[in-house]
Specification:
alpha+beta; two-stranded antiparallel ribbon; 14-stranded mixed β-sheet; 9 helices; single chain; 16 strands
Amino acid sequence: MIVKWPLIYQKSGPMGWYQVHTPFGLRYMMMVNMDDILVSLPYFSFASITKKVPDVVEANPVFTYDGKVLTCSDPKVQWHVRMLKPVSEYFHTVKVVSWLPLADSPKIQLSRFSSNVKRKINKAVSNEIVLETGGRELIGQFYGVFSHNMHRLGAPTMSRNFYGNIVEAFGKEATVLIAKHKGKAIGGAIWLKQGDYSEVCWFSTLEDYNSFYTSYFLWWECIRLSIERNCKVFSFGRSTRDSGPHIYKQQWGTKNTSLYWCFSYPPRNDQYRIGPFNLSMPSRKTLSFLWKISPCFIIRWLGPMVAGKFY
């Protein structure tokens, strides 16, 4: 199934597939022009690189990877790529992706978890949490949970339409999962599949229902769906190394791979462009505090513009 990437990135900037000459042959990398910087697969964990020839390939610029360093045919072009290894002298690696090798059946997979994880999954079921799955029609319920929780945490989000476009772009390879209690959405996740690999980049549950073990219920349903759809690997998505979410994922028996966000230029303070002006973004700590105390009507308007710069 071909992902309709323009649906996701149509408002981020011009998107294209660029040639990458490697020791293993010619490859193609999808990049989006964001504020005159070519960014590989913004908002996802790492770049999309394929040896399959896309329908349309950009003639310029052309990239070369010699096995260690990525270079561009036009030295004036600035780029930012997200990889599983460093490809530039300028990079940071504060993020990790946590992934789980999958068993052949949900029953076998469940048996591999610790007794504590299995107990909490069973407890969630006994608390009468039920699952609803679907497509774009469930984005409203997902976004209600996700945006509320991100506001509480002091983090901006993309627009509701952005997440709806992701589900539409992936088509049958996307599923929205909603955890419900007595008809109320208390958790939500967007599950995506490519080949035999599945990932959940966007996941959230309501804090008021933590005692119901909603997150255990919902993660397990994502894992079970992956097995039923013949995936070999399930990814919990990225998180900051040694953070609370990262530590939480370890109890599922995950393996961890460092993510390298590589730049063709020395990293600088995030900026936001308004017409001819570049305004410095506040620090993450300052932004988080301001976000928590801001009214909902402000963050719904400003959130997508800010989130695009930080994620």
